[in-house]
Design brief:
Blueprint lengths: L2 E6 L9 H14 L9 E6 L1 H12 L7 E5 L25 E5 L1 H11 L3 H16 L7 H20 L14
Parallel strand pairs: 1-2, 2-4
Antiparallel strand pairs: 3-4
């Protein structure tokens, strides 16, 4: 699966290996049940101010959040153009699934929960992809099902060694 990552999380959160992020994202998508996604997945890692703007502009919610998921597969234009490869997906195709993740929120939550920061970021990617795969967490039963799926995806990423090391630096932004 094609995966694109964009890291604009600020000076406190240096970008990990882009290749490792792409491998983690592609594997998480597969583990979430997202096979054959035209155009693949794009994950943008933004600062709190960046994700706050997306959250307000697109969802009408105020403040930063952990992850936002957009699924464009239901739209009329599946992201194909005239030049496709053997799989039927163009290298130039627009991503079909877009995630916006905030490493700053992940770091704060990781500290509160006593978890590694990289694991929390990976969890947000898994969570967003599971939403695109049809999972929901709006009622208690659906939330339990989604949490089990998150644990399964995270175990798969851990077992394959696909969660890239990430760091946080104490610098002024």
């Amino acid at each position: 699966m094609k995966a694109v990552t964009i890291w604009r999380a600020g000076k406190c959160f240096p970008a990990p290996s882009r290749a490792r992020l792409r491998r983690m994202t592609a594997a998480a998508a597969e583990l979430a049940g997202l096979h054959d996604v035209p155009g693949g997945v794009c994950v943008s890692f933004l600062s709190p101010a960046g994700i706050e703007r997306v959250n307000e502009d697109f969802l009408g919610h105020h403040g930063p959040t952990d992850v936002i998921s957009f699924d464009y597969r239901a739209e009329d234009d599946p992201g194909f153009d005239d030049e496709t490869d053997a799989s039927g997906v163009s290298d130039d195709a627009d991503p079909s699934i877009e995630l916006i993740v905030c490493p700053s929120v992940a770091y704060e939550q990781a500290v509160k929960r006593g978890l590694p920061y990289a694991e929390e970021v990976a969890l947000y990617v898994a969570h967003g992809l599971l939403h695109a795969a049809g999972y929901d967490d709006l009622n208690p039963k659906a939330k339990r099902v989604m949490r089990r799926a998150e644990k399964r995806v995270m175990a798969g990423l851990r077992n394959a060694g696909l969660i890239p090391p990430m760091e946080h630096k104490d610098v002024e932004e």
